[in-house]
Amino acid sequence: MPTLEILRPTPHTAEVWLNRPEVRNAFNEGVISELTHAFTQLGADPQLRCITLAGRGKAFCAGADLNWMKAMAGYDWEGNRADAQALADMLFTLYGCPVPIVGRVQGDCYAGGVGLAAVCDVLVAAQGVQFCLSEARLGLLPATIGPYVVRALGEQASRRYFITAERFSAEEAYRLGFVHECVPAEQIDQRVQQIVQTLVANGPAAVKACKRLVQDVAGRPVSDDLRADTARRIADIRVSEEGRAGIRSFLDKTPPPWV
Question: Residue 114, class by beta-carbon neighbours within 10 Å (0-12 exposed, 13-18 middle, 19+ buried)?
Fold first, then answer.
């Protein structure tokens, strides 16, 4: 049985739903494989402009499935490394997806679920949701999700929550900048849809270029090479068909062709 539900409300938008509510959308090797495949396919769709990542039921994602964890306990080192590599590759697929991802966190988000939230480009959470990087309680560490969580949550907050495994609320996640918006639960769908509509109204190639720009320049020193790279990027997009059409529409006060 598929562990994901994939919807296409419009040609330009997609929704990927974690669909294991009976286990709080915990993931196993099947979920990891399906997510990797789904986002590889969606990322290659030239029509697609936005993907929503969400979870059915009461939880967004509770981390690793208990039966999967039991199986991993019997693996040798190489088996554990291969298993972890599949998770690392899945997260990188989502992180590198050229199409922007809007995360809809309607319920609790633990361990690997925090990693899924961290790779989203825009993250909306319902008030009262709890986050937890719980690995240390089990004698483990959030290694594969670590690069993305540290980028999204920040180094100082990650120090605390990695080592204490404390829960923190959506409101605290918003204060720390991990969550972009924290809204009442009954408003989360409306707010997510508003953000999706905002993304779809922008130049599709420009949005993808903006996403890549942030990933490429974050943390780099402002060197001669970086300045030259950014000048090249803006020149490339200015002379592109989309860039020329967008500027022309702005000057003529007419809707751009992609709207």
Answer: buried
CB 65 within 8 A of CB 23: yes
Taking residue 73's Cβ as centre, other Cβ atoms within 10 Å add up to 8
The residues facing 4 across adjacent strands are: 18
Q: What is the CA radius of gyration of the chain?
A: 19
Q: pLDDT tens for residues 11-70?
A: 999 999 999 999 999 999 999 999 999 999 999 999 999 999 999 999 999 998 878 877
229-230-231 Cα angle (round to 5): 90
241 CB-contact burial (10 Å; exposed 0-12 / middle 13-18 / buried 19+): exposed
Rounded-to-integer distance, Cα 10 and Cα 231, Å: 35
| 3-class secondary-structure state, position 1 | coil
Please check whether residue 135 is in contact with residue 142, taking contact to mean a CB–CB distance below 8 angstroms: yes
Answer for the pair 64, 133: CB distance below 8 angstroms, yes or no: no
Query: Rounded to whole angstroms, how far apart are CA atoms 179 and 195?
Result: 14
The predicted structure's pLDDT at residue 1: 61
Residue type, 184: P
Matching residue, tokens 């009442």? 184
Dihedral sign (CA 131, 116, 96, 49): negative
Coil, strand, or helix at residue 167? Answer: strand
